[in-house]
Design goal:
The chain is mostly helical. Helices cover 72% and strands 0% of the residues.
């Protein structure tokens, strides 16, 4: 009877897998603990918020009921959804069009113009805040939600760079064959380039959704009417009312944080496959 023996390299491989799994579990605990603590604190009475117990001694669902009655959270979430979708769609389309132009067309000064576009990434956001506010104030839109998404109509330097690298990896023969068949430039982009760069477009869209949903600076500058608040601006109002300098109801602050975090968690799990596929494909193309 043949005796089976485990090779040393197999034992070493098993040990490495165990270490990797242990590392992943440890990292998961580190990253999940704050959110678990947040949920736990949102269900506690005021006197127990900062104790060390993750399981509340008394589950107080009335914190969420009080939150819904005191603040227009549904309105803020709806505003954030609309602003986020508008920002993500506009920046994805505009950046893709500009990136395709830099990748496909050949014209004098193209590389210099592209370098200038990339150079704008070096500008701190604070440098352009005042000029942008003056422009929107001149247009009588400084107190609306338009400044939160309309600048994306001109694209983003980072997304233009990302998409251009992807377009450069597409076979130029595809476009030349389509041109021979009489296809116009818009057809080249819409029928050939856009479908082929779908993973990169999804990555761009998801990145902008995350950036727009969590943006606090611009809502603080432009939004004055509470009915126009987005989620981050609304959380600032919750903190002002129930946090330091307010009623010191931290369980209400935690409940609001849980409510506005859940949509992004759901969106992550829904888009996880597309996101990872897009990152891998974009990296290989670049």
């Amino acid at each position: 009877m043949t005796q089976l023996t485990m090779r040393p390299d197999t034992k070493e491989g098993t040990a490495k897998r165990v270490l990797r799994v242990a590392g992943v579990l440890l990292a998961s605990v580190v990253f999940l603990y704050p959110f678990v603590w947040l949920i736990s604190a949102s269900l506690k009475p005021s006197t127990d918020v900062f104790d060390n117990a993750l399981i509340p001694h008394v589950v107080q669902w009335s914190n969420y009921q009080e939150l819904w009655k005191a603040l227009p959270l549904f309105t803020w979430i709806g505003n954030s959804v609309l602003v986020t979708l508008a920002a993500a769609v506009t920046v994805t389309v505009s950046s893709a069009v500009v990136a395709f132009g830099f990748a496909y067309f050949r014209f004098p000064g193209r590389d210099a113009l592209f370098a200038l576009v990339i150079g704008t990434m070096m500008l701190p956001a604070a440098v352009t805040m005042v000029p942008q506010y003056m422009v929107w104030n001149w247009l009588h839109l400084a107190s609306s939600q338009v400044p939160l998404w309309a600048p994306n109509l001109f694209g983003s330097a980072f997304y233009i760079f990302l998409l251009r690298q992807f377009f450069l990896g597409l076979p130029r023969e595809l476009f030349e064959a389509a041109r021979v068949d009489g296809a116009g430039y818009w057809t080249l982009f819409w029928r050939i380039a856009a479908p082929l760069c779908r993973p990169a477009l999804i990555v761009t869209f998801i990145f902008e959704v995350q950036a727009s949903w969590t943006d606090l600076v611009r809502p603080l500058i432009y939004l004055r009417d509470p009915q126009l608040y987005t989620v981050p601006r609304g959380l600032k109002a919750v903190l002002d009312q129930f946090g330091d300098g307010g009623e010191m109801r931290w369980e209400i602050v935690c409940a609001a944080s849980v409510v506005v975090t859940v949509p992004m968690i759901i969106a992550f799990f829904v888009c996880q496959r597309h996101f990872t596929q897009g990152i891998a494909t974009t990296g290989s193309k670049g």
